[in-house]
């Protein structure tokens, strides 16, 4: 680390996962019968439902927004000057909500709503803040719940030395600051995580831990995705600063 950018003593020994060779972060296959140890709790229920009751289905076009050859659900879209949902990716998707004049509406009731129309079995999410890809898969069609859980699961993985070493020293310093800030952050009086858990991918976001939405940016997608056939199913996920 360059002069003037020494890491605090509390993070001299930062925990990492083994180096990864694959830049993709792919959701587990729905055909698996036996779940591996420490599988996230939501993975043990049928894909696309997450144990919640069926969500209201939208039949009118006002609930969908056109994007290329596909419609993205309005809740997932970026919105200027505000949010369609409030979701801090450091927390569980079950804590996300929809801001409304009559009060916060729980987002869980929309987890089973299709993320796109027509249905897509796979979405690839990329970001300007990190180099890996988040692949969301569901043979029955990707839902809003699929998208939120995959984003949360990917970003809350312990980072690898390879991922950390791939960024410049000034970016590493910002990641370490975010690491300390995130370990000190609380939700409903409880700490979000402990220093002993080590660096997590979410630390790459700095203060931008609120999901702002996903959108198409053809220029950026073409620079990141070399395979032309994957570009139509690729979207850019955007984040906004959190006050915590």
Q: Which structural category do the helix and sheet elements fall into?
A: alpha+beta
Rg over alpha carbons: 18 Å
Q: How far apart lie the N and C ends?
A: 27 Å
Largest sheet: 5 strands, mixed
Q: Can you give the helix content as a percent range?
A: 10-25%
Overall number of strands? 12
**Major beta sheet, strand line-up:** 1-8-7-12-11
- The gross shape turns out to be globular
String of helices and strands: EEEEEEEEHHHEEEHE
Model description:
Residues 1-12 and 27-68 have low confidence and may be disordered. β9 and β10 form a beta hairpin. It contains 4 helices and 12 strands; from the N terminus they run ββββββββαααβββαβ. With 244 residues, the protein is of the alpha+beta class.
Secondary structure layout:
Elements: E1 24-26, E2 64-67, E3 70-73, E4 97-98, E5 105-106, E6 116-117, E7 122-127, E8 130-137, H1 144-155, H2 161-165, H3 169-184, E9 186-187, E10 190-191, E11 210-215, H4 218-224, E12 234-240
Parallel strand pairs: 1-8, 7-12
Antiparallel strand pairs: 2-3, 3-6, 4-5, 7-8, 9-10, 11-12
